[in-house]
């Protein structure tokens, strides 16, 4: 069973591993419905978040007479740790407990753990800094980049904190925790798709074919230390910045994340690694000889009725024909594969430009 704001990637991973996924998410788009054994709408909405009071009954109805092997929680639960604990009382949870999520997503505790473990981590504070132009402001437990703003003009608010801005390349490490150590699946470079109200909105990621072994071993050590501190299990990801003076850890996402699609492998399915690690069992990780990228495309302007499109096989998360979109709504996810990260990133952007013309036309 899968519950997430968007469950399509998890459902695809479950199918690749031979499972019959039951999915509850906000969209129930055609991709997800096709992948799922059964699918239902997750209670709540994008503005207010998941409705914790109705979720148990929703999941019970989704399960029906079946006994799910496990429930995997995706995006949307980072700020709902009490709901995570409640779900775990009704279904076998494969993933991090509410306590583990609370610890790793608390900016004060993460900063303290990093300081004790010798992990470079940008300074954070709850009050407004004297030089806000050098800081960003975030929501504790936020995900996806839409909650991040530059701090200039931002006032302190409940649940919001300030983090010193670190210039450099955005790198993500997908890893599997077993409560004691972390095994890195791979590294990816991420990029933003800025919008007026969301300058750090997630744009896409490309799997890096090569990564310095010494740096990888160092980062694995960092993640193993944090895994022990928080008791992290299953698939998680770490956001890092490659700054001029070395890598800095920005935050940990204690769940399968946005890069699942580009790291999954039919010969060593990552959902199987997630389930086995969460249960304290041995698991296998995939090996890669090329690069792969995924990219979210967004509507650049309002669309009164989304057109009918013959979607290429290298797309997913499709908008339905006739849907009314506002500027900034996601349209689809695009995938590309190539021999190197740089070439694959160029390829996926070319594919996006060609595909976007079908719903945007000539905007010149």
Task: Describe this structure as you would to a colleague.
The chain is an alpha+beta fold and about 375 residues long. It folds into 3 domains: about 90 residues, Rossmann fold (3-Layer(aba) Sandwich), CATH 3.40.50; about 180 residues, 2-Layer Sandwich (D-amino Acid Aminotransferase, Chain A, domain 1), CATH 3.30.470.20; about 70 residues, no CATH class. The protein contains 10 helices and 18 strands. It has an 8-stranded antiparallel beta sheet with strand order 15-14-11-12-13-16-18-17. A hairpin with a 3-residue loop joins strand 4 and strand 5. Helix 4 packs antiparallel against helix 5 and helix 6 crosses helix 7. It is globular, with a radius of gyration of 20 Å. The mean pLDDT is about 95.
Q: Would you identify the regions where 5 or more consecutive residues have pLDDT less than 50?
A: none
The count of β-strands is 18
> For the record, what is the CATH homologous superfamily label of the largest domain?
ATP-grasp fold, B domain
Sketch the topology as an H/E string, one letter per element.
EHEHEEEHEHHHEEEEEEEHEEHHEEEH
Class per helix and strand makeup: alpha+beta
Q: Which terms summarize this structure?
A:
364 residues, alpha+beta, Rossmann fold, D-amino Acid Aminotransferase, Chain A, domain 1, eight-stranded antiparallel β-sheet, four-stranded parallel β-sheet, 10 helices
TL;DR of this structure?
This protein has 364 residues and is an alpha+beta fold.
Topology (SSEs and partners):
Elements: E1 2-3, H1 8-16, E2 22-25, H2 30-35, E3 38-41, E4 44-45, E5 49-50, H3 55-63, E6 72-73, H4 81-90, H5 98-105, H6 107-117, E7 124-125, E8 135-139, E9 149-150, E10 160-164, E11 169-178, E12 182-192, E13 202-207, H7 213-230, E14 233-243, E15 246-253, H8 260-263, H9 270-278, E16 291-298, E17 315-316, E18 330-338, H10 341-360
Parallel strand pairs: 1-2, 1-6, 2-3
Antiparallel strand pairs: 4-5, 7-10, 8-9, 8-10, 11-12, 11-14, 12-13, 13-16, 14-15, 16-18, 17-18
């Amino acid at each position: 069973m899968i519950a997430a704001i968007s469950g399509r990637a998890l459902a695809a991973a479950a199918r690749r591993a031979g499972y019959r996924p039951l999915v509850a998410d906000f969209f129930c788009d055609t991709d997800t419905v096709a992948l799922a054994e059964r699918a239902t709408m997750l209670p709540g909405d994008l503005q207010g978040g998941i409705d914790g009071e109705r979720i148990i009954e929703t999941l019970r109805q989704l399960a029906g007479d079946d006994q799910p092997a496990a429930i995997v929680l995706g995006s949307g639960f980072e700020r709902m740790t009490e709901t995570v604990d409640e779900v775990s009382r009704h279904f076998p949870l494969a993933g991090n407990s509410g306590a583990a999520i609370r610890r790793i997503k608390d900016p004060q505790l993460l900063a303290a753990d990093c300081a004790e473990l010798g992990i470079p981590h940008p300074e954070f504070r709850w009050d407004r800094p004297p030089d806000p132009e050098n800081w960003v402001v975030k929501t504790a437990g936020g995900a996806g980049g839409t909650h991040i703003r530059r701090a200039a003009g931002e006032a302190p608010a409940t649940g919001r904190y300030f983090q010193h801005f670190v210039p450099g390349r955005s790198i993500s490490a997908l890893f599997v925790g077993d409560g004691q150590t972390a095994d890195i699946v791979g590294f990816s470079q991420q990029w933003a798709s800025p919008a007026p109200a969301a300058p750090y909105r997630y744009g896409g990621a490309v799997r890096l074919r090569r990564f310095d072994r010494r740096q990888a071993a160092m980062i694995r050590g960092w993640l193993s230390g944090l895994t022990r501190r928080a008791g992290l299990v299953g698939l998680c990801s770490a956001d890092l910045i490659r700054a001029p003076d070395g890598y800095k850890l920005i935050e940990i996402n204690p769940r399968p994340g946005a890069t699942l699609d580009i790291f999954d492998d039919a010969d060593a399915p990552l959902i199987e690694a997630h389930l086995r690690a969460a249960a304290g069992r041995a698991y296998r990780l995939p090996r890669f000889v090329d690069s792969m990228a995924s990219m979210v495309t967004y509507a650049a302007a309002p669309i009164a009725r989304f057109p009918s499109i013959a979607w290429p096989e290298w797309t997913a998360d499709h908008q339905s024909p006739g849907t009314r979109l506002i500027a900034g709504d996601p349209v689809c996810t695009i995938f590309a594969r190539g021999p190197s990260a740089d070439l694959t990133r160029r390829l996926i952007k070319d594919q996006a430009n060609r595909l976007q013309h079908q719903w945007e036309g000539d905007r010149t």
